[in-house]
């Protein structure tokens, strides 16, 4: 019974630690995600990209989230490979630095942070303050989880089997290294894994050498995670995670052999073993920054390992391949799943169309424009297929609830097609007009449009999650984000009119262009958010009217 109780306590504390890390990450993404993407896109130097990657990973407590974001930006040609690699390696260092703070003995702060964070999250009317409250509560829960791990592993120091087990781990350091990699991969967080290893070493449950091998293994596991999370992205977007794996994973494997075969670990200062492990982790990730000056060479290697797929004749548009299965019409649940997959594919096409729009406003590219028009054709073909397939399926459906679900899916497909038309027929011609007239947005106006664009890209991901999960909370978040973007658009319009009144020449030249672009962004976002309304209506989370009732 004691062993079962011990395992349950450790498992519970580990899950709490993982949940707390994800809680902080989600709060930061919702509060500041679009702003971070915008800053990343504006980075033009490797040093600034490295520093920003480190800061973002430290704030989000996740280098994985930064790697995924940067890979998406690189895959959309919004940043160069050199800046992307610098940001990812900086993020690895940032996640190592945050461990130094979280490992401090400040568990006494946890109750106060829970109180402050809880009040902000529960009582605040401002979305940003609510997310700040979520972040503070997450940090508090991390401190509580670490204290639970230290408390529960302390009795192991006096156990009879522990010395023999540690001796096995010390002798087979490669197995220990792989255990650390596996745990970091399964936890989907190097921060959580390393914090757990530090807690075990601090409580003297594990020795310093075992802890170092585990932490170096966690670096390998952490570099494998972006590979796994970006597996569905185009080959170009996966080049950065692959190179990060080769650099960080290869260095971790080399370092674990060097540390265990030499007396290099003896060069560390005479501090507590737990702090020595953290210092080793920081030094290791700092050393990886020497690869940044060679990022151009690394980019060429990545292109050879993961070349971009190109058709034999680029003038022939890629034909759309439907996932609608005619045989599945005999089983309505299976056919509905086919329609949902098809609509999700439509959503990805719409995202691919919207992603390069701001880049086209800065520098119009005929090839990119042609790709958007071809994607719009694919979008229309997909919708025609769904409409025909749904017509056949409706003859097989007898349940009123399933009919309503089918109708909601078709309405969302209509909305996605309308969103694609906004890009192809509104935004694309506006970008072309800007080039023909040779005009430029003011710095303030461009920043406002970029901020709206970043929010839209984030909202497409939210809509995708709603479509797949049908989760009420995510649906509510999507509608809240729609309202925030609408408010942002109204404020942008007011600021633009103030700049006109102040006589700013650039604002006067691009007045119609700015207003039409911001309105198109708002309409696109509104179409994408329609997936949330049936779910919220079903749960009674929507008002019937915004009008005040008559007395």
Concise overview:
By secondary structure, the protein is mostly helical.
- The end-to-end distance, rounded to whole angstroms, is 67 Å
Order of helices and strands: HHHHHHHHHHHHHHHHHHHHHH
- Helix share bin: over 70%
- Structural category is mainly alpha
Q: DSSP helix count?
A: 22
Mean pLDDT: 83
Low-confidence stretches: 310-319
Q: Any idea what the shape is?
A: globular
Number of domains: 2
Radius of gyration: 26 Å
Strand content: under 5%
**Mind describing the biggest β-sheet?**
none
* Strand tally: 0
Description:
This protein folds into two domains: 2-305, no CATH class; 327-538, Methane Monooxygenase Hydroxylase, Chain G, domain 1, CATH 1.20.58. The protein contains 22 helices and no strands. It has helices at residues 2-41, 46-60, 63-75, 81-102, 110-123, 127-153, 162-171, 173-187, 190-202, 208-229, 239-261, 273-287, 295-305, 332-354, 357-362, 366-394, 400-437, 443-469, 472-501, 505-509, 511-528, 532-538. α1 runs antiparallel to α18 (443-469) and α2 packs across α3 (63-75). It is globular, with a radius of gyration of 26 Å.
Primary descriptors:
551 residues, mainly alpha, 77% helix, globular
Secondary-structure topology with pairs:
Blueprint: H1 2-41, H2 46-60, H3 63-75, H4 81-102, H5 110-123, H6 127-153, H7 162-171, H8 173-187, H9 190-202, H10 208-229, H11 239-261, H12 273-287, H13 295-305, H14 332-354, H15 357-362, H16 366-394, H17 400-437, H18 443-469, H19 472-501, H20 505-509, H21 511-528, H22 532-538
């Amino acid at each position: 019974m004691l062993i079962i109780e011990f395992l349950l306590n450790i498992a519970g504390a580990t899950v709490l630690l993982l949940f707390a890390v994800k809680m902080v990450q989600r709060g930061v993404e919702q509060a500041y995600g679009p702003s971070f993407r915008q800053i990343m896109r504006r980075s033009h130097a490797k040093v600034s990209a490295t520093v920003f990657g480190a800061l973002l990973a430290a704030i989000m407590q996740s280098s994985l989230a930064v790697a995924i974001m940067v890979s998406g930006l690189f895959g959309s040609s919004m940043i160069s490979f050199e800046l992307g690699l610098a940001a990812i390696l900086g993020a690895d260092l940032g996640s190592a630095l945050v461990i130094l703070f979280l490992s401090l003995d400040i568990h006494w702060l946890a109750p106060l942070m829970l109180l402050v964070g809880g009040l902000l999250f529960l009582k605040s009317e401002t979305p940003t303050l609510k997310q700040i409250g979520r972040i503070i509560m997450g940090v508090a829960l991390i401190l509580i989880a670490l204290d639970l791990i230290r408390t529960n592993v302390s009795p192991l120091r006096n156990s009879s089997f522990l010395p023999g087990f540690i001796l096995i781990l010390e002798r087979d350091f490669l197995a220990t290294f792989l255990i650390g990699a596996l745990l970091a991969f399964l936890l989907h967080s190097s921060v959580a894994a390393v914090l757990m290893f530090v807690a075990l070493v601090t409580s003297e449950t594990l020795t310093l050498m075992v802890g170092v091998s585990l932490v170096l293994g966690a670096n390998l596991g952490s570099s494998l995670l972006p590979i796994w999370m970006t597996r569905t992205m185009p080959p170009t977007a996966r080049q950065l995670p692959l190179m990060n794996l080769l650099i960080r994973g290869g260095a971790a494997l080399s370092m674990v052999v060097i540390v265990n075969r030499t007396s290099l670990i003896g060069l560390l200062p005479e501090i507590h073993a737990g702090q020595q492990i953290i210092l080793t982790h920081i030094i290791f990730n700092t050393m990886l920054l020497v690869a940044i000056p060679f990022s151009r060479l690394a980019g060429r290697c990545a292109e050879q390992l993961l070349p971009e797929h190109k058709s034999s004749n680029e003038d022939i548009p890629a034909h759309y391949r439907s996932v609608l299965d005619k045989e599945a019409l005999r089983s309505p649940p299976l056919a509905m799943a086919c329609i949902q997959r098809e609509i999700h594919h439509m959503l990805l096409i719409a995202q691919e169309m919207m992603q390069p729009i701001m880049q086209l406003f800065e520098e119009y590219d005929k090839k990119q424009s042609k790709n958007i028009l071809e994607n719009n054709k694919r979008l229309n073909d997909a919708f025609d297929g769904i409409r025909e397939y749904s017509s056949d399926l409706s003859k097989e459906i007898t349940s009123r609830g399933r009919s309503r679900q089918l109708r909601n899916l078709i309405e969302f497909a209509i909305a996605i097609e309308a969103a694609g038309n906004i890009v192809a027929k509104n935004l694309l011609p506006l970008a072309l007009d800007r080039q023909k007239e040779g005009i430029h947005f003011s710095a303030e106006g461009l920043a406002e449009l970029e901020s709206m664009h970043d929010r839209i890209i984030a909202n497409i991901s939210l809509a995708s999650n709603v479509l797949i999960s049908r989760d009420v909370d995510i649906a509510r978040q999507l509608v809240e984000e729609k309202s925030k973007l609408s408010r942002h658009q109204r404020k942008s319009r007011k600021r633009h009119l103030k700049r006109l009144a102040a006589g700013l020449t650039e604002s006067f030249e691009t007045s119609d262009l700015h207003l039409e672009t911001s309105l198109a962004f708002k309409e696109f976002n509104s179409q994408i958010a329609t997936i949330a309304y049936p779910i919220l209506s079903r749960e009674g989370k929507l008002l019937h009217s915004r009008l005040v009732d008559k007395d």
